[in-house]
Design brief:
Pfam families: YjbR (PF04237). Helix content is 37%, strand content 25%. The chain is an alpha+beta fold. A 6-stranded antiparallel sheet has the order 1-2-3-4-6-5, with helices on one face. The longest helix has 17 residues, at 90-106. The protein is globular and about 40 Å long.
């Protein structure tokens, strides 16, 4: 997955914005103000921090050692750092980004979730 594809994927979800609260290099993708993906799109290898169900996080780390690791500078129980530069199938990276978005949306207040469902 290229940096441009990762950025486009993150921005494809409903009510998503890209923000730079830490520095100009670190893209933070948020849904209604809540972080679901964090990456430096210029870094090599390309990695992205993604929220993950704790049980799935451990399983994914075991299945993809070195490519999916505990979230760098994040709560390691709920976040993984995923190498998105092509060693993992793009389909898996897309699924993990979507899962991260869905987990964050599920934690939003009901009124916000309902707002997201409207066209």
């Amino acid at each position: 997955m290229t940096p441009q594809e990762l950025r486009a994927l993150c921005l494809s979800f409903n009510a998503t914005v890209e923000d730079f609260p830490f520095n100009p290099e670190t893209s933070v993708f948020k849904v209604l103000g809540k972080l679901f993906a964090l990456t430096n799109l210029d870094a090599r290898p390309l990695t992205v921090n993604l929220k993950c169900d704790p049980e799935d996080a451990v399983r994914l780390r075991e299945e993809h050692p070195g490519l999916i690791v505990p979230g760098w500078h994040m709560n390691k129980r709920h976040w993984n750092t995923v190498t998105a530069d092509g060693e993992l199938p793009d389909r898996l990276v897309r699924e993990l980004v979507e899962d991260s978005y869905d987990l964050v949306v599920a934690g939003l207040p009901r009124a916000d979730r309902l707002r997201l469902d409207r066209p």
